[in-house]
Amino acid sequence: MDLQGKKIVLGLTGGVACYKAAELCRSLVKQGASVQVVMTEAATHFIGAVTMQALSGHTVYTDQWDPRVDNNMAHIDLTRDADAILIAPCSTDFLRKLAHGACDDLLSTLCVARPRRLPLHIAPAMNVEMWENPATQRNVAQLRQDGVSIFGPAAGAQACGETGFGRMLEAEELLDELVAAFQPKSLAGKRVLITAGPTFEPIDPVRGITNLSSGKMGYAVARAAREAGAEVVLVSGPTALAAPHGVRRIDVQSAQQMHDAVMAHVHGQHVFIGVAAVADWRVVNASAQKMKKTADAIPQLEFAQNVDILAAVAATTSLSGWPYCVGFAAESENLIEFGAVKRERKGIPLLVGNIGPQTFGQDDNSVILFDEAGHTVLPRADKLTLARQLISEIAKRIDERSLLT
Ligand code: CTP
User: Fold this and answer.
1) Residue pLDDT, tens place only, 46-55
2) CATH entry 3.40.50.20 includes domain 191-404
3) One fold for both 7-181 and 191-404?
4) 361 C-alpha vs ligand 1 centroid, how far in Å?
5) Are residues 324 and 397 in contact, defined by beta-carbon separation less than 8 angstroms?
6) How far is ligand 1, taken at its centre, from the CA of residue 288, in Å?
């Protein structure tokens, strides 16, 4: 549970996207957060306070002059032990109020009166013209400068019938953004390129050779890198997973395509992490048409070795020292010995070893980090926890390296 023990003030302002706030509230609670909902009067026209109260399990406040508040200090008391404020949806007008420090209802007053340590996040939701209006953009720029984080908005079809930027992010995406906001920004300003999943080597247009990699570890690493503040490109073989929010995914099938996509993006990267289970061989006599089954002929496949993507990236580092290269290795035996040897053979500073293939497709894992100083065990945990630990280890190492160069 990523938000265990966190106290979140969830502010709702007027907009159709209030319907998504109900789902969001539920997701926050499911992740262990205690949610205090505060609504503007406009928000109550779109969704009932009773609904939000039932979902959050706490009294919902909508009015600065609520007679239930003994000391009339709800605008102070509601934020004093909070860990974050999230305004979702945030209307055009509420965004304006925040940018100007207005205090004319409970929610805006509470935002202005928040302790300086308390992060304020907003999820804009409005018509595309309202979002693109220069006045709104000025207010957004001002809020960014004031340290407010802006989640979204996304582009797409809008409730008003128009299309463009202004759609509020989905509840799941907002949850990811909020969880990310609590993670240390150890890779802020860094660019990270990651491979994930299996590759698929065609035999003919409908058949091919692949492996059991689910992509879960690579996707978790991509998510963790993005949470740490990096700009992330994920080159992915075929998987059933959705790209983590905010990560740019490039879909490929074969090892050669993965290599080409990686080499097209490697320039300017600070970190390369090869998590993909890349096929070592490809079929050189693949058929352009579907092979037909005939009684007397069993197809004979011929193989050629695939290019080693990690080695190719590692070879580019000789000039600038970047990107910092990290490999993964799944070994079925002798992990300690094979891991150390493989790191040296690949010519990379860090290799993450795990015992496979039984970890493929699982939600948790235990890994060993091999570097020039030896090896360190990261004990069994879910893949996202391990990915966050790995990202923090990488960040430490590249900081040390930057100091030396
Ligand atoms: N890798 C790669 N390109 C390949 C093969 C592997 O980039 N053609 C990368 C993987 O993404 C992983 C690392 O190399 O980060 C190790 O992969 P692994 O299959 O364990 O290593 P191999 O070099 O293929 O060694 P072996 O199969 O002999 O264990």
Assistant:
1) 999 999 999 9
2) no
3) yes
4) 18
5) yes
6) 28
